[in-house]
Amino acid sequence: MKNPFFKNVGPFKIDILLKKVSIINHENFKKDKIFDVKDLSSATKKDLTFFHSSNYSSLASSTKASYCLTLNNLSHHLPKSCKKIIVDNVLLNIANITKEFYPNSITDDFDNSVKEISQTTFKKKCKYGKNVLIGKNVKIGKNCSIGHNTIIEKNVNIGSNCSIGSNVIIRNTIIKDNVCILDGCVIGKKGFGFFPNKKKNFRYPHIGIVIINNNSEIGCGSTIDRGSLSNTVIGKNVFLDNQIHVAHNNKIGNNCIIAGQVGIAGSSSLGDNVMIGGQAGISGHLKIGNNVHIGGGSGVIKNIKDNSKVMGYPAKNLRDFIKENR
Predict the structure, then answer these.
(1) How far apart, in whole angstroms, are the C-alpha atoms of residue 183 and residue 257?
(2) In terms of CB atoms within 10 Å, which end of the chain has fewer, N or C?
(3) pTM over 0.85
(4) pLDDT tens sequence across 265-306
(5) Are 247 and 226 in contact (CB under 8 A)?
(6) Which domains does the chain have, with CATH numbers?
(7) With bands split at pLDDT 50, 70 and 90, how would you rate the model's confidence at 245?
(8) Across 25-34, 128-137, 286-295, least confident range
């Protein structure tokens, strides 16, 4: 999916790009132009990607990218068509490269393009409360309502028959039809991606967006971060309770129900029909299968297969948990 909101200032010749970010060009790459930086699965022959963990070896083996930043001990997983750029710190270097392509993706300052909704064309299309602000590049469908003190910042598409509550902030987000966003939500801000440093932490650019599909509801006080390189996606008919955090790059399938105070760390995926009890935590880079039930207060630190019921910390088969805690 082409990035709809962040401006790409490429292409760059590969040798110039590597020089800009202080990567030694051991292979003397010169001629090729790189048009974008993408993840392993979405990259094309015009793009550069990255491969930093053996967890993604299957994706690496089938990537269509022309170039890939990787570690020496992982490079053998990549196809011959993909030229390897060996570095010591893959994530830090890909962050620097992403900044070159998308220089405006680091900061999340408030949107000073906003106007009172009464000064925009939306005043005749929406039902709205007091002190509603709308930014540039915003689209809103038919029969929508927006509550008091809500800010729809730049780069937001809202479908038809949507209800946006009061004290909500939305940016860099596509919301499909029949979606309810309840009071106090923050959607589309940058995620918690950075590299710790004793003097100054280095922020990772977040050029992805949030996509919320049809007939979903986001509970009060919930936060959904936009993706870093890929998008954060909420499936169809998903109901999130209050005070839920969905971190960057997460993919939540259709018909999921998630109770209050659940936290899902970055780059995890949930299948369809997943149910999660309150105050559970899902670690990052995990795959939760279809029809999975996770008990309240559980800590999930491993992948979960389809049709499983788990509980506890670390989360385990529900029957085993009950036997151990009688």
Answers:
(1) 19
(2) C
(3) yes
(4) 999 999 999 999 999 999 999 999 999 999 999 999 999 999
(5) no
(6) 12-101 (3.40.1390.10), 115-324 (2.160.10.10)
(7) very high
(8) 25-34
The DSSP annotation for 193-258 comes to -EE--SS-PEEPP----EEE-TT-EE-TT-EEPPPSSS-EEE-TT-EE-SS-EE-TT-EE-TT-EE
Contacts of 184 (CB under 8 A, 6+ apart): 165, 166, 167, 168, 220, 221
12 by DSSP, 3-state: which?
strand
* Residue found by looking up tokens 């809500």 in the block: 150
Q: What is the distance in angstroms between the CA of the first residue and the CA of the last residue of the chain?
A: 50
The answer to whether 248 and 262 have CB atoms below 8 angstroms apart is no
Residue 287 exposure: Cα atoms within 13 Å on the Cβ side: 6
The residues that are catalytic are: 248
- pLDDT number for residue 198: 79
- Cis (ω within 30 of 0) for the bond into 103? no
